[in-house]
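Hi L.,

As promised, Multidrug resistance protein MdtE:
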Amino acid sequence: MSRLVKRRILKRRTAGSSGFVVGVFAACVLSTCGALAQPGGPAVVIAARLVERTVAAKQSFVGSIEPTKRATIGSAVSGRVTEFPVEAGDRVEKGEKLAQLLTATISLELAAAEAELEYRRQMLAELENGSRPEEVEQARARMAAANSRFEFATARRDRVQRVFLENRAVTDDEVGEAVSLAAEAEEAYAEAKAAHSLLVAGPREEVIAQSRAQVKIQEAVVERLRDQLAKYTIITRFAGYVVTEHTEIGAWVSSGDPVAEVVAVDRVEAVAQVSMQSVNYLRPGERVEINIPALEGRSFEGVVVTTVPQGDLRSRTFPVKVLLENEINDAGPLLKPGMIAHAVLPTGAPRTVLLAPKDAVVLDQSRRSMFVVDKASGEGQTGAVSLVPVTLGVASGPWIEVLGGVSAGQLVVVQGNERLRPGQEVKVSRVVDDPLAAAAKPSVSPVSSR
């Protein structure tokens, strides 16, 4: 055989071999390599049951995070700032000092008023305690002495008058002097007697009442000065964060001037603008989902507080306030006023629907379908899958409403449905009720075990 003939024969054999390999590869592609995927048994999948739940249509509304309290704290009095211990961004507790004004003059006035109050209180105490026993005894002794002088003057007057009448041994002047001294002694005795009675009776109730009134007047003066002095120390009325500084040490502030702005963010409100068609489906106390794009889409659960009954005349939307618990760490509050918030709120009446995990939905261009496991009702069981077209409805977290040829309790494939074919046999390795729990566990490959 010539060399030319041998070359032609070898070339034909080589070409035939290449065609055979290409044909095998094409067959493998057309059959989705089914023979390689499950040469030894059914595909292993994770399934979930379809459930019926009462849900409402929901929509995401754009809003913003706002503090529950915001106050621009000002000065109630005029004065010079001597202390300003806070800065923007600092956390302050309720009653903490924001600024201190100069208090030298008001402190002196308060000291004088307190001394005057103490003086009046002691005077009142003296009146309320009444006369001391020693004072009463002293008055009694004076009364007795006055009585003795009165008796002596009376006796002398009588003698002088008798002598004058009997023998004219005394002059008219001596008689007059004796009568006058007796009358003076009588009046002195009456005065001493009255003084003794006053001390025994004690102060009059009217005098005590007047003294009490003077004490109350002075107490009011002291309280006014103390209140005024307290106003020289400017404090915050609630815990929060300083967001704006309006003064500095050495500055003069007048009554009413702002000192600092404080916001309370231990709890915050997500305020969303809701359309008038949807606002009537919201109820106070309802728990809703709030998504924060700035926190990589992190979700929070909040409570609807109120719907403001005054809408925007241009957009016809109403503010809805949702209360959220904030997270406070060393870096400050996690939710900060001004952040964009997406509030997922109901937009329709609640109704009972059939829900499936979103992972069970297979997307094929414009069609939506799911692989339903037939003749298998639990873990470890084997059955064939059928591809059932469905229509999607309301989403509820990781679940979504499905309409079509499916019913509650059926098993649908949530992991491993990427390579399945209608009629293919599968083995259910695990049945999950919560798709989030399934996502947290290691995924099971649908490749068949050998």
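The chain has a mean pLDDT of 85.

Thanks again for sending the construct details.

K.
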